[in-house]
User: Fold these one by one.
Assistant:
Number 1:
Amino acid sequence: MYGKFEKIYQLAKPFLDTRDNDIHTRIAYSFACRLLEAEGGNEDVVLPAIILHDVGWKSVPEELHLKAFGPGENDMIINRVHEVEGAKTARRILEEVNHDPSLTEEIVAIILEHDSRREALSVNDAIVKDSDKLWRFSKEALEIDPNRFGIPPAIHAKWLKLQIEDWFLTETAKKIAREEQRLRTLSFGIKSD
């Protein structure tokens, strides 16, 4: 699935065995490919960044994960730990595979603030941010997240719908989120407003 980035994925894989990050990464990667096609950007930045963006969760004790993301109040200090540690791990992995150093710098900068910085540094950053959030609209996420957060799927789906305009930076991501939302409401039997 990861093509020329398979080695990066293999080195990242041991860091993705927490918080359902392996499946999250696979789905975010597929959204990143779609966004690259529609929005432009550099796949040699975006795709390694999306593979590596959450490797830092391995540095955060699992009992703290749910305090740092999801509906409700989020502990941004915990969230920052995963970004900072993720950037360090990403750099080591990219150096190990001899990824272009100038691209590595951009990838590390994206990962360093992929959740905490609202604005995008570039189209590449916008695609990574949007791909990361689009996961939440996938079939898999709508099976995992309501259980994870202890809320009914219908309420979670309605909450997600309210986030579309505020969360996404590209028009393509907004369009994909709306379509995924429509598909999920149909497949889960959730009444659409």
Number 2:
Amino acid sequence: MKFGSRLLSTLAICAVPLLSHAGDYPSKPITFIVPWQAGGSIDAVMRAMAQSASKTLGQPIVVDNKPGAGGTLGPAAMAAKEKPDGYTIAQVGAPLYRLPLIQKTNYDPEKDFTYIVNLAGITFGITAAPHTAFKSWADVVDYAKKNPGKLSYASPGQNTTPHLGMEQISALAGIQLTHVPFKSSPETNTALLGGHVDLQVDGAGFKPLVDSGRVKLLAVWTSQRTKRWPDAPTLKDLGYPLVIESPIGIAGPKGMDPKVVSKLHDAFRAALEDPDVRRTMAEFEFVPAYQGSEDFAKFVVQSRKDEKAVLNRLGVLRADLK
């Protein structure tokens, strides 16, 4: 056998496992990093989706809770250390692409991840405290225009999606509100009921207050009105060209095999139709917000552009990005 033939034969033999890898995937359990404490709403929904997707893939998907750095610690560690073989993936969301706009990080959200699929969004909304007479968002805007800066609103944290979303809405409405950040939904609920703030902006942590009639839900930020609160208008209903749901998606390290990405994408997309998954999502007021791999990656790029402008207006954009 000539040298060239031997070389071709050797290359062909070496190529077999490389080519068969994607076809055999998955051949062992998959680690799924959820960057939040166990027992929370995102954790519960992700566990339901992982269990459903594992049935399609034929291998267990093992949830590994790695909270920290506002939901970025786990995905960042994955991007830095794990192989792009599809056996370690992570739940990713707005904090992942927002934090690098505020401070320097050891990852680039546009270069260091393979975006697999976006699955859901969070039902955010605006509620009014019992001591106010606000029956609608129009009432808020009317009062705020006559009394700039006198109305306050609580959010579950500085530079969170509720905070930045409210700043976008206020700018479009031409009003000035005073932001009062807290650390969690229970704290914003307490502040609202205690009359320490006039409004609250949060995810569905306000659900028990609204359902009991103690507070008024003035608007939701989802693309459509919710089944639970059909009388609450969306931002689009109010004339604002905004849908703010905060992506709940899945990504892996950069450089993943497209065939492996496709298998993961298809399994988790199928999970969205699972009745058990839908029930869990409804329990925590998550809404389906499917985006394929390419669209999800484009969404991240566009969202960074949009939030960059808001963060710059608030004076918290990294100086080297201005």
